[in-house]
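re: that chain from earlier
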Amino acid sequence: MKRFLFLLSFFAISVYAEGKLVFSNEVYQIGKMKQGETRHIVLDGKNTGDATVLLETAMTQGVGGSDFKFPKKIMPGESFKIEFNLSTAYAEGFITHTIVLVSTNGDAYTATLEGEVMPEFIFSEQLLDAGYYSPGEKREWVFYVWKPDSSKPSLKLSKDASKDFKASFTPVMLNTEKLDDIREGGKTPGIKVTLSTKGISKANTLAGQKSLRRIVGFESATNTNAHPEILVIGYWK
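^ sequence. v structure.
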């Protein structure tokens, strides 16, 4: 009888033993980064549970995380570190990344990463309306671009954007005192951008999808790691 109770007790402990990974911070603040910058991030924590955690993968739910390094096995009471590279090539403004660790039994452990990406360029418009659109129709938009440090900007369309769009870039001097009313004739070096469609294709659009959404990417001549983007939206006729 005593042996039976011992085995039952041992079985109960085994069933309810649980690993629990806790990060040192619920929110990690990474401060400010320049667009196009890559930073090596290290997060730390501890297994506060009473069972070993076997990790299957580590990932971020934001864009730009790569080269994750993590321990495969974390014993009870053991500390751990998660390392990865964070690229801001396609990010801008305030960013939030959720870091997710997934164990081999499907448990997920998360931490949050917050920071701010300083843009390479400032766009007077970042959301362009194509209206009701039929494949092949022409559209044209005009907007302005300048740099936060007021240096001379240099910009071109990305290779992918050039498939559906074309653009002309004209150097101008801008008055940027009112962000909702950017005008030519000021003291800030800028670019007047005339963006037009080559005829947006409906290829790769899901059957029955009515909304049109195209990301238009640009490249910087002075910072090849920065890839600012704007968005064209509309509805298919």
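DSSP finds one helix and 18 strands in the chain.
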